[in-house]
């Protein structure tokens, strides 16, 4: 049996890192030979999680084909979000909770996707279905991933399954998930130590929409003013990436994790679909989006519909 690499998306968040670790542990228990790796360094929130549970960071790769013939994907399926040479390897497994777009394979594969708040919730179900025990440390990591993706179960992506799984994992890990979760989320909101490029690259994904390449970054904060006092510099950083990486439109979603409100910074074009998606007029390159916290559920589907209209 040949070794396979397991990884999440580029610019990995906590779920991308943890899901790779969790699914690798699961697959190895099922008899596979896998290694969890990452497509980037952990962000501050993820590093907080790893430090809290005394867990090492994953090895970072930029290519897979020079190591293995096949790979397993977690927390993503779209090729532009994956490893640079994804076309040169066989994808044998996918476990995800996002839309399916631009994905195809030449051979049958294992594909598990559910509309849950977190990929780690899907992986939890695989553990349960196969009667595999989740160790306490891994339970803490998976709990962290769900808290991260659902903003402590406040995001509209949160399902009853996510809530139940968080409570079960908290028992296994013996942790107060609410106190820990808030500390974890706040750890990821230290913006002053980051450059504008680091801020817009930390949690960003690219989407193809009706012939336009749309980059959507999300910045979590406890004060939106901390983000927008740097608006001009953020716009310059986004313009530079539009020019260098071929994005048509760069959207920066700044989200206050305490009151679940967001503000969108719009750089590039076309802008008409953005206004149509949210029923608002852009002013000073910004849109106020009260109650919006989820890129996956409250931003990307609306944009996709507006672009395709």
TrEMBL record:
The keyword Metal-binding applies. It catalyses: diphosphate + H2O = 2 phosphate + H(+). One of its GO terms (molecular function) is metal ion binding. Signal peptide: none annotated. Its EC number is 3.6.1.1. Keywords: Hydrolase, Manganese, Metal-binding. InterPro entries: DDH_dom (IPR001667), DHH_sf (IPR038763), DHHA2 (IPR004097), DHHA2_dom_sf (IPR038222). Its cofactor is Mn(2+). Residues 181-307 form the DHHA2 domain. GO terms for cellular component: cytoplasm. Belongs to the PPase class C family. This is Probable manganese-dependent inorganic pyrophosphatase.
